[in-house]
Design goal:
By secondary structure, the chain is mainly alpha-helical. The protein has 4 helices and no strands. Helix content is about 80%, strand content about 0%. About 30% of the residues are buried.
Length: about 130
């Protein structure tokens, strides 16, 4: 039961981190010029984006891998891989689609956590 609580909290953290990453990537191009006025110019640095992606990756892999033995459904893992695939494609392969692919990838990762959370809550624990 303790792992279930830990996994549920990690899914919530993963949803939050992924949504924050998606919002950061979607909104940043529009507010880039105003960031220095508010003292938030650090949000435009590459290390912030790399940190958010890394945090989402670590939380996602750990959370989904610890709850998979309980519900035995691959859908959350597949969606997680698709989300990170979109982010990687936007960063390294199709850079002119970066502003579209990366936020959609972040929302897709959040969706993977949500589905995993729903599956974990609906399975019977012994």
């Amino acid at each position: 039961m303790k792992n279930f609580i830990k996994s549920e909290k990690l899914d919530r953290l993963g949803m939050t981190a992924s949504l924050a990453c998606a919002i950061h990537c979607a909104v940043l191009p529009f507010v880039l010029t105003a960031l220095p006025l508010f003292g938030l110019s650090f949000l435009a640095h590459n290390w912030v984006e790399t940190f958010m992606i890394g945090l989402s990756l670590v939380i996602g892999i750990y959370s989904l891998s610890t709850s998979y033995p309980k519900h035995k459904r691959l859908l959350p893992l597949i969606i997680l891989v698709i989300g990170f695939g979109m982010i990687g494609t936007g960063h390294y392969l199709i850079e002119n689609m970066e502003a579209i692919l990366i936020p959609i990838g972040g929302f897709t990762i959040a969706l993977a956590h949500y589905i995993n959370w729903k599956y974990s809550r609906s399975c019977v624990h012994k």
